[in-house]
Specification:
The protein has 14 helices and eleven strands. The chain is an alpha+beta fold. The chain folds into three domains: 55-156, 2-Layer Sandwich (Phosphorylase Kinase, domain 1), CATH 3.30.200.20; 162-347 and 412-425, Transferase(Phosphotransferase) domain 1 (Transferase(Phosphotransferase), domain 1, Orthogonal Bundle), CATH 1.10.510.10; 351-398, no CATH class. The strands form four sheets. A five-stranded antiparallel sheet has the order 1-2-3-5-4. The protein is globular. The two termini are 33 Å apart. Residues 79-345 form the Protein kinase domain. Residues 1-39 are annotated as: Disordered.
């Protein structure tokens, strides 16, 4: 198999490739790895070099998928599986220990029955070539196949994905701005190379710092060159799909555009700020919430949709642009950077305390509680917020201990309530 390239999480991307090559050479002297592992590594690089002469400026080598000879090896031959990090419809994600060089790494194992070899090579190619960007998950020059899986290696994210870190009331505004800035950079980089991710969602953004100062985009299995004809596929949250995909007929092929990433990026920002999704699906005929927003977005009414009333006027303008129904007028992901110095949430709404009945007051306090829980800017502010939280919850005779299992259960209840059944509501493109 190919050598695993060990990297430090704080390395710059330009340093990462150099240092991992040096480590790979050193480790090959210490281990009894078969020679074919080295040939696998060189096979990929030689294939890439042979394509460089035909590269162009708007994506170049990224759009030329090389022919690779991936060796056969069972995972347990060189790796000890420490735990199963995640499991989806097409793949399993393992945290493993690589015995020859005594280090931990993540292996993405993709079911051979559900993915063709060509699709696997395409995902591996994009994952490896795009990992030069600091906000895209690093993939290593390691690929092999077993009886049941195609496998390649990636770096480990110690704090999971955004879905695991999102509470019922969303994240603090400053945290969301940090995430938005990093994802805007990663997607902007992809779009500059005429690549469309096509599957932007909470589960595909990994967290490397508890204050969200370092997050990375991952999972390039659906990544496609812009302008390519694509068809709907299964297993993507329908809540995140843009209207042009929702409106397309099943099995009908349509042109892949970067504007689809912009839409999903906008839905993600809404989810991070509120802990919910704005609508069940972007179908203005059958979804009343989306119909109300579309009418507001097209300036056919001045009435702000109820589920958007907590945002500031300035950020409502951003939502109007990035969630524009017309793909030609939809803003690019990088446009969010224009709003970084503005308030995104309406402070009058999010911090007000109603003088009405206690139920209305408690509901308002719940919004404040979620803000307190997710404010991680400094240790002092966190301690202060914990004290204030305990005092506030005690006032309403609420339980003051937080059970993480209960939190996870609430997240899953929210997902299931949004989807109303896997078979009907989960769809892709």
């Amino acid at each position: 198999m190919c050598k695993y390239h060990q990297t430090k999480s704080t390395m710059k991307l330009s340093e990462t490739k150099l240092d991992t090559n040096q480590l790979s050479n050193r480790s090959s002297l210490k281990s009894n790895t078969p020679k074919r592992s080295d040939s696998c590594k060189l096979s990929y690089r030689n294939s890439v070099k042979s394509l460089k002469s035909n590269s162009n400026k708007d994506g170049g080598i990224l759009h030329q998928i090389p022919d690779l000879d991936v060796p056969y090896m069972e995972i347990n031959k060189e790796y000890d599986i420490l735990k199963n990090i995640a499991e989806g419809c097409f793949a399993k994600i393992y945290l493993v220990h690589h015995r020859p060089i005594k280090t931990n790494v993540v292996l993405k194992a993709i079911h051979t029955e559900l993915t063709s070899f060509k699709e696997f090579i395409k995902e591996f190619h994009y994952s490896y070539q795009l990992s030069h960007h600091p906000n895209i998950l690093s993939s290593y020059n390691v690929a092999f196949q077993s009886n049941d899986y195609f496998v390649f290696a990636q770096e480990y994210a110690p704090y999971g994905d955004l879905a695991a870190n999102l509470g019922p009331g969303g994240l603090h505004e400053s945290s969301v701005k940090s995430i938005a800035s990093q994802l805007s950079s990663a997607l902007g980089f992809m779009h500059s190379k005429s690549l469309v991710h096509r599957d932007i969602k909470l589960e595909n953004v990994l967290v490397f710092a508890l204050d969200f100062s370092r997050v990375k985009l991952c999972d390039f299995g659906a990544t496609t060159k812009e302008g390519t004809l694509v068809a709907k596929i299964k297993h993507t949250w329908k809540n995140f799909l843009p209207p042009e995909v929702i409106e397309s007929v099943k099995h009908e092929r349509f042109i892949c555009r970067t504007s689809a990433d912009s839409w999903q990026f906008g839905i993600m920002l809404y989810s991070l700020l509120t802990g919910n999704v704005p609508w069940r699906k972007a179908d203005w005929v059958n979804d009343a919430k989306y119909a109300a927003f579309k009418k507001y977005e097209e300036r056919k009414t001045t009435k702000i949709p109820e589920n958007f009333s907590k945002f500031s006027p300035r950020f409502l303008r951003a939502f109007r642009k990035i969630l524009c129904h017309n793909t030609e007028d939809r803003a690019k992901v990088t446009e969010v950077m224009k709003y970084m110095k503005d308030k995104w949430m309406d402070s009058k709404i999010t911090t007000s305390k109603s003088t009405g009945n206690i139920l209305g007051q408690a509901a308002s306090d719940q919004d404040s509680i979620c803000v307190y829980l997710n404010n991680r800017e400094s240790k002092n502010s966190l301690d202060e917020n914990k004290t204030r939280l305990r005092r506030l919850m005690s006032t309403y005779c609420l339980e003051t201990s937080l059970d993480q299992n209960v939190v996870k259960k609430r997240i899953w209840e929210w997902i299931l309530s949004c989807e109303e059944g896997h078979g009907d509501d989960v769809e892709g493109y």
